[in-house]
Amino acid sequence: MPRSSAQRRAWVDEAVRRVDADANRSADTHLHVCPLPGSPGIELYLKDESVHPTGSLKHRLARSLFLYALCNGWIGPDTTIVEASSGSTAVSEAYFAGLVGLPFVAVMPRSTSESKIALIEWYGGRCHFVDDPADMYAEAASLARRCGGHYMDQFTYAERATDWRGNNNIAESIFAQMSEEPHPVPSWVVVGAGTGGTSATIGRYVRYRRHPTQVMVADPENSAFFDGWELDTSDHTTGMPSRIEGIGRPRIEPSFVGGVIDDMLRVPDAASVAAMRWCTRRLGRSVGGSTGTNVWGALTVIERMRAAGESGSVVTLLCDSGDRYASTYYDDDWVAQQGLDLAPYEAVLANYDATGRFTPGAGGV
Fold first, then answer.
1. How far is it, in rounded angstroms, from Cα 304 to Cα 299?
2. Angstrom distances, CA of residue 170 to CA of 308, 345, 363
3. What angle do CA 314, 177, 259 make, to 5 degrees?
4. pLDDT for 277-330, tens place per residue?
5. What radius of gyration do the chain's Cα atoms show?
6. Which domains does the chain have, with CATH numbers?
7. Can you give the pTM of this predicted structure?
8. Cα 216 vs. chain centroid, distance in angstroms?
9. DSSP state at residue 113
């Protein structure tokens, strides 16, 4: 039966209430101090996004995307939600679709791991497979049209779905939590880029609040963001998927806003994995591969600050738990099969532990 305008509006009101209630229950995520060797007068903090209900930074993105679509009138009581994702975004969107009682379909490569498929299905989602990862975007849009659904399109809407001026976005949360620290205004915030939404939010926020904080994006191998930023172009592609789950893209995504980024760093995948394991030992909690990329970037800017005689604070993100990667990044056989040689990067980190000097240029690294 067709629903009246009043019935649809009442449904949207209730759906928004449920999504907002999730934010209230989740409260905020923790900010951990990561002890550094050598007492450089610089503190490193990791904002732990793994404590969200769906276990990753993408929980924030999914919540924002649902609120944005609901308030734009794109989602109603009979809408099927479709997304192009084989990762944490699909897991989080499946959760929110279930929260408001809607079906969810994730379009993903056929090669997606069984564990990730199982997690999406556990939250009530359905997986739709393509043979070529490059076909995910078009197939998701086509599937949404065929079923009268809504293609959430995280890669387009991530940078605009979140209110970058405030409303408890991740940037506002970081600065509030830093307020009683020795250096309350971070010198740097280091993040990775998957959609580009997080770096856009933080970069806009620090400008809006007139903070001197600089934003670095640490980018893994095979990702188009670094080269596109250096070349100042939005159409650069690599044709290669990232091995660091959750960050890096083979094309420049529409949500990537290069103008609010102060610096970028290409991080080798082996460095990401080595730094992930180093960070796990330092923090006493397991972290994922994208956190390793972030930490390698953070240690790079900390060394620059130390060499310049600067003190201050650096904040980066603990994007998700390492528990999801026991059979990949934490499995030495898998790492070897990928052709990743961790030894040179582990040597850099061991030397850092011993001397307090982070020198990735030594030994050819």
1. 9
2. 29, 30, 37
3. 50
4. 999 999 999 999 999 999 999 999 999 999 999 999 999 999 999 998 999 999
5. 20
6. 22-57+165-360 (3.40.50.1100), 58-158 (3.40.50.1100)
7. 0.92
8. 14
9. -
